[in-house]
Amino acid sequence: MSAAYYFQILFSLLIFFGLVYGLFVFSKRVQKKRFSGDIKVTDRLLIGNHASLVIVTIRSHEYLISVGGKDIRLLEKLS
Q1: Are both 43 and 24 inside the same structural domain?
Q2: Distance between CA atoms of 23 and 16, rounded to whole angstroms?
Q3: Same structural domain for residues 19 and 44?
Q4: Residue 66 contacts by C-beta under 8 Å, 6 or more apart in sequence?
Q5: pTM
Q6: Whether 43 and 63 share a structural domain
Q7: Domain span at residue 23?
Q8: Same domain, residue pair 28 and 48
Q9: What integer best gives the mean pLDDT of the chain?
Q10: What does the H/E/C string look like for the chain?
């Protein structure tokens, strides 16, 4: 087998892995755009073993939410 054959295989593998890497980067960008998120947890206060108060910002509105065990409740709209 000649050096040209090995060069051709090496070049093909480089192209293949370059395409795989490009698809990986592209999928990460699409995922970030899709799930960029309008919801942000601004603050959290633990008030018990399985209970906490959370301030959540959703599209420039803030909400006070209680989270406990299997229960989530909106307590108040702050802004």
Answers
A1: no
A2: 11
A3: no
A4: 51, 52, 53, 54, 72, 73, 75
A5: 0.54
A6: yes
A7: 1-36
A8: no
A9: 90
A10: CCHHHHHHHHHHHHHHHHHHHHHHHHHHHHHHHHCCCCEEEEEEEECCCCEEEEEEEECCEEEEEEEECCEEEEEEECC
What pLDDT band is residue 65 in, cutting at 50, 70 and 90?
very high
CA distances from 19 to 7, 10, 28, 73 (A): 18, 14, 14, 47
Is residue 23 located within the same domain as residue 45? Answer: no
Amino acid at 2: S
Residues 12 and 28 in one domain: yes
- Residue 3's CB is within 10 A of a number of other CB atoms, namely 7
* Segment 22-61, tens digit of pLDDT: 999 998 888 777 666 788 899 999 998 889 999 999 988 9
